[in-house]
Structures are given as structure tokens and as C-alpha cells.
Amino acid sequence: MIELCSYNDINYLAKQVALYHSLECHLGNDFTLHVLALDDVTFNWLGRRNFRRMTVTRLGAFEDESLKKVRLKRTRVEYYFTLTAAWVRRVLDHYQLDSVAYCDADMFCFHNLRQLYDEVGSASIAIVPHRFAPEYAWRNEANGPYNVSWTYFRNDPIGRMALDVWRQQCLDWCSLRSENGLFGDQGFIRNWPQQYGAHVVRHIGVGLAPWNQLQYRYHVAGDAIMVESDPLLIYHAHEFCRHERGVYTYTHWPLSDFVVKHVYEPYCQAIEEAEDEIRTH
């Protein structure tokens, strides 16, 4: 069973619903998505919808005093980033899972994820590199070499220790400005391969994103979108914004025509279907 956890507020509700349906399409019953609802509208709607492969937790039922204290000092987005490690640890403990991966709500699944989990194997932690295109390599220092968008933890001493340290680091500092190699919650993970033996995901169909997609060659093989020789498993639709039906901002990064046609056009359709579902349920 693939266990994932995520969080969202009303602004990302359609994205979370689109992610859930994409997982359902490609994983069937072989997953659970554990969602932390960051506002009452999100909690109430997801609760009414009662998705079969989703659990939903209200923010107020999860926050402890340490989180409430820092919430007063941070912007909304900074506070959301502060929650990541604490939410992953809560999901591991509460549901007594063998492992769980945090997944951003603006991810979208294009293929079964078993190849990813086969690669991770028995690793305690797995992280995904940004893989910045060469012209953006300077961002490895500003934004960190790894992206939190899919981050995996096994429920073992190493996984739990890393989560506890990361949770405290984010309580101490979690800003959207780049400072001393840190940025939000993700700068802290830059040393995990050396510190914890974290597995760095090699599959380039994981973590494909606006900042790295221009450097690859693509083709379609059957029902799979191929990135070089790997199928696209999951895409990070960073910055995607739906303004109204049929009107979108994809990203400020330049995109290949192939990615627009084969990634963003299906994603736009999924977002529209999710918006319709939200309105009618």
C-alpha cells in the first residue's frame, strides 16, 4: 500500500482533488492520501465528499502549542511550510504506518508509482533533486538541491529521528526568504544524504517540474509520457493558477511545447473537473 500525506487550504482544494483522482486512476486501491485540512471550508467539503482512499484531519485537531505559538509570527505560507515535518510524523504515528511520503497538493500523477517505490526499496528516507536546468544551476544554493514536493520516510529510527530534527528546525526558522542556504522547509534537507543516508531518487519521471523540464527529450509510448527513457510518474505543477474557466497561468518558467500539450492540457482538464465537482457536491 502506498501511503501519502498532504495538506491544503481552500485555494488548493481543486488541486488536491485533482491529485487524488489522478492517484485513483493510476494506483486503484493501492494508496491512501492523508490530508490535513487547513481551513473549515476544506475540512467540511472533504468530509462531505468522503473519498474512499482519503483521510481528512482538521488543523485544529492537529496543532499543538508549539505550532500555535509560531503561527502568530509567520505568514500564511510560511506557517504551512512549518507544518510539513510535524504532519508527516503525526500521520506515521497515528495510523501506525510502515512508511509515508509527503506530497505537495499541486502534484499530479501520470503513471503507476511502483517504479519509484521499487527504486526506494528499504531506504529510511528518499528525496527528489530539483534537477535545475543548467542555466538555473545557481538556484541550488538559493533554493537547495532537493525539493520537498515528494519526500519519503520509513517508520524506523532513522526516519523518525530525521522528522523530529526537521520539525524542530522548522519551528525555529521557516521563512520564504533565502538565507544561509535555507529556504522555507526545504533547505534543511540538503545534507540528508550524508547525515541520514537518504536515497536520492534517480528516476527523472519523478519531480519533473517547470524549472527542469526544458532540458529533456520527450515522446509518447503507448499510454505513457516518456522523459528520456523513463515514464513520467508525477509532475509538480508549481505556480499553476486557474483564474476562471479556461483561463490559466501555467508558470513563469518557459515550457516546452510537448509539456504544454501532454502535461498541462490534461492537468487543466482535471482542474476544471475538480472545480465542477466542488461546486456540485
Outline of this structure?
About 40% of the residues lie in helices and about 25% in strands. With about 280 residues, it is an alpha/beta fold.
Write the topology of this structure.
Elements: E1 2-8, H1 13-27, E2 31-37, H2 40-49, E3 54-58, H3 59-62, H4 65-71, H5 76-94, E4 99-103, E5 107-109, H6 114-120, E6 125-129, H7 139-143, E7 146-154, H8 157-172, H9 192-196, E8 199-200, E9 206-208, E10 218-221, E11 224-227, E12 230-231, E13 234-236, E14 241-244, E15 247-249, H10 257-280
Strand order of the largest sheet: 3-2-1-4-7-6-8
H/E order of the elements?
EHEHEHHHEEHEHEHHEEEEEEEEH
What is the CATH-assigned architecture?
Answer: Alpha-Beta Complex
Give the tally of structural domains: 1
Shape: globular
Instruction: List segments where confidence is low: pLDDT < 50 over at least 5 consecutive residues.
Output: none
Describe this structure in words.
The protein has 281 residues and is α/β, with parallel strands linked by helices. It has a single domain (2-204), classed as Spore Coat Polysaccharide Biosynthesis Protein SpsA, Chain A (Alpha-Beta Complex), CATH 3.90.550.10. It has helices spanning 13-27, 40-49, 59-62, 65-71, 76-94, 114-120, 139-143, 157-172, 192-196, 257-280; strands spanning 2-8, 31-37, 54-58, 99-103, 107-109, 125-129, 146-154, 199-200, 206-208, 218-221, 224-227, 230-231, 234-236, 241-244, 247-249. The strands form four sheets. A seven-stranded mixed beta sheet has the order 3-2-1-4-7-6-8, sandwiched between helices. A hairpin with a 2-residue loop joins β10 and β11. α1 (13-27) crosses α10 and α5 (76-94) packs antiparallel against α8. The longest helix has 24 residues, at 257-280.
